[in-house]
Amino acid sequence: MPLKPDPSFYPSPASAIEGPREELAYVVTLNTGTNGDRRPDALTVVDLQEGSATYGTPIGRLDMPNVGDELHHFGWNACSSALCPWAPHPHVERRYLLVPGLRSSRIHVVDVKDDPANPKLVKVVEADELARRTGYSRPHTVHCGPDGLYVSALGAPDGGGPGGVLLLDHDSFDPLGRWEIDRGPQELSYDVWWNIGYDTLLTSEWGTPDMVEDGVNPELLLAGRYGHHLHAWDLRRRRHQQAIDLGPEQQMVLELRPAHDPTRPYGFVGVVISTADLSASVWLWDRVDGEVTAEKVIEIPAEPAETEQLPPALQPFGAVPPLVTDIALSVDDRTLYVSCWGTGELKRFDVSDPRRPRETGSVRLGGIVRRAPHPAAGPVNGGPQMVEVSRDGRRVYLTNSLYASWDAQFYPEGIDGWMVKIDSEPDGGAFEVDPGFYVPYDGERPHQIRLQGGDASSDSYCFPS
Amino acid sequence: MSNDTAWLTLAALGAYHGVNPAMGWLFAVSRGLTERRRRAVWRSLLPIAIGHELSIALVALVVLGLSVAVDPGALHLVAAATLVAFGIFRFVKPHAHPRWTTMRVTDRELTLWSFLMSSAHGAGLMVAPVLIGLQDHLDTAHVAEHQRADLAIVSRLPLPQTGLGIMLHVGVMLLVMGAVAIVVYERVGLEILRRAWINTDHLWAGAFLLAGVVTFLS
Q1: pTM (predicted TM-score)
Q2: Chain A, nearest residue to B185 by Cα
Q3: Up-side HSE of residue A316: CA atoms within 13 Å toward CB?
Q4: Is the interface score ipTM higher than 0.90?
Q5: CA distances (Å), origin A338, targets A147, A249, A271, B44
Q6: What gap in Å lies between CA A71 and CA A32, rounded to an integer?
């Protein structure tokens, strides 16, 4: 047992920003068998230590025990929320990564303490155990909460709804059960996070496993059947409070990025596509007189394109949708990064006034039509997708794959995996691709990135800066 | 246990609970930081102290009740067994704590929180052997004066001493807790947590085992 708190636990966002620079990135990759060889998905380790001989290259890898997990999002067993005043346990360690398979519903527990570059698998929670104890399947987001691990799940074991949130014990990682006591009208699920200082939990909506696993279903999409709500919950009483309808044309409400400062009651959530005009958007949720409200603060239009440039799924529309599939908020809550996976762009916004975001930079990489080049690799495919920001906000890491069956619809030639780094100077300064950082993933598709010691989407803080 | 040792132990335990961030000053500081005013720190201390006191009073009541109902030998045995069992529990499950996920609390909720935390931590339980020690001391002092059995029973109910003991414990805790909270809030800041929050889980669990053994032997 450690004698002092884990050095990667920070009481406030400001304290986290002052912490040391990240030295490793953990990146999950999906093996789709496009290289003719169906192998397990893996957790890979990329060296980020400045001056290291292996900087910017993969130095470690843990293959999962089975084939076909579809590793997607993952998270730490413990983070800065361990310092929260109501039930602090500062001497647990940030040492395990919980890595769910979004298709297999297995949850892998990986130990990175003894040899951080060579993760070890220590436990697997199997799909049937998860289903038996929680009623849920297709685990997605993992967040270290103050009293356990919160995991969102897309649906029920039979592929239908409802999806929801389950709890894992933070010592044994055994599933404890479903989190909701009263789910109200909520049926669809995707992401989960909270405004911890306001005892409010938020969930977003994608679709049930049946609605997403075979690819985006145009009929469901045009009928407005994918998720278009944001849900607010009482974190303490585990009860549904509000369903906020963003409008039936706002399809697929995905990544939730609450402000890190616990005194700020707001956050941002991305919407993949509007069926009205193929635009994508980012919404601000805020708390006004005790009610959670949401308003669109960023809209990104579709880009016109020739039919022959488009994959079959998009040909009827004559345009490329931006497809905002991930967003990231810097730890100081001042900068928002928005991934446009369809048009191949990463946009940067100054959100110090959250109601009036100001675009302060853009980087083009890949894209369905554009195939914008990377300085180290020439034209690339896929586009900025999962985006992760360093604690100090100066480095942004990107990968380019979304979800196997959806990749195939938007990038039918297959995705050549990559991870890149963008340098982002504060206060609207330079925003440029690092020409020396390009990690190719041959025959594999990288998805979420976690930075050693925490990043902008891994930790909750109970104390203001 | 002599009187002086008992008072000293109660005061020392109070100081330990006062310093321990998990027992309340951290919550007080967080309320101050959230509301951005020092008054919120001060105002949190009283509910925390009341919750702590309630947790201890509960154990004290049980000890007093048992001291009337059973003979001293049985009381020592029950107390020793409870202390050892709790010590083992804290060794096996050092992270066990009541479920609580709320930052925004009223004074009443803060009192409840403090009661739950103090109880789970074993704050009251740790005070029990000291109270029993106080009582033993009284028993021997009074035996000569009160030969008659009914009087002996009355004298074995050391209410004033128990009350004073708890007041002393909570008073010292409040003093230390207030001092730490305000120094952290005004001067040092919460970075101190990262450097100075020493892990006393095993030490605390060990103290229960020790207290159990001492209670058994005395």
Answers
A1: 0.94
A2: A463
A3: 6
A4: no
A5: 31, 20, 11, 41
A6: 11
Which pLDDT score, from 0 to 100, does residue A10 have? 97
- Cα(A280)–Cα(A278) distance, integer angstroms: 7
The length of chain B in residues reads 218
pLDDT attached to residue B155: 43
Please give the full DSSP string across B93-150, using - where no structure is assigned: -TT-------SS--HHHHHHHHHHHHHHHTHHHHHHHHHHHHHHHHHHHHHTT--SHH
DSSP state letter for A369: T
- Looking at residue B158, what is its pLDDT? 67
Per-residue model confidence (pLDDT) at position B144: 47
- What was the pLDDT predicted at B152? 42
With a CB cutoff of 8 Å and minimum separation 6, the contacts of A25 are A45, A46, A48, A388, A397, A419, A449, A450, A451, A452
Q: Which of A103, A291, A147, A262 is nearest to B116 (CA)?
A: A147
* pLDDT at residue A152, as a whole number: 98
Domain ranges of chain B: 3-217
Q: What is the pLDDT of residue A36?
A: 67
Nearest CA in chain B to A10: B194
- Topology (CATH) of A13-451: Methylamine Dehydrogenase; Chain H (2.130.10)
- Cβ count near A302 (within 10 Å): 21
Tokens of A4: 């002092």
Extract the tokens encoding B187. 């001067």
- Nearest residue to A97 (alpha-carbon basis) of A77, A126, A73: A77
Estimate the crossing angle of helix B201-217 against helix B123-143, to 10 degrees.
20
Put simply, the chain B residues between 179 and 198 with a CB less than 8 A from any chain A CB are 190-191, 193-195, 197-198
C-alpha to C-alpha distance for A62 and A112, rounded to whole angstroms: 11
User: In chain A, which residue's Cα lies nearest the Cα of B117?
Assistant: A87
> Which residues of chain A carry a pLDDT beneath 50?
none
Domain segments of chain A as ranges: 13-451
Which helix (H) or strand (E) segment holds residue B192: the answer is helix B191-196
What is the maximal distance between C-alpha atoms in chain A? 63
Instruction: With beta carbons less than 8 A apart as the criterion, state whether A245 and A215 touch.
Output: no
**Segments in chain B below pLDDT 70:** 1-2, 137-158
Nearest by CB to residue A146, choosing from B101, B104, B191, is B101
A171: how many CB neighbours lie within 10 A of its CB? 14
pLDDT digits (tens, 9 = 90+) for A136-152: 999 999 999 877 899 99
φ and ψ at residue A309, rounded to 5 degrees = -80, -10
Q: How far is CA A165 from CA A15, A193, A449, B19, in A?
A: 30, 10, 22, 37
User: Sign of torsion, CA B34 B37 B41 B47?
Assistant: negative
Option in A3, A235, A463 nearest B199 (CB): A3
Residue A59 in tokens: 């130095």
Distance from CA of B71 to the nearest CA of A (A): 39
Tell me how far apart the terminal alpha carbons of chain B are, to the nearest angstrom: 8
Q: What pLDDT was estimated at residue B63?
A: 85
Spatial contact of A431 and A365, defined as CB atoms under 8 Å apart: no
Residues A341, A325: contact at Cβ < 8 Å? yes
Cα atoms in the 13 Å half-sphere on the side-chain side of A280:
27
* Residues on chain B touching A8 (C-beta within 8 angstroms): none
Distance CA A133, CA A146 (A): 21
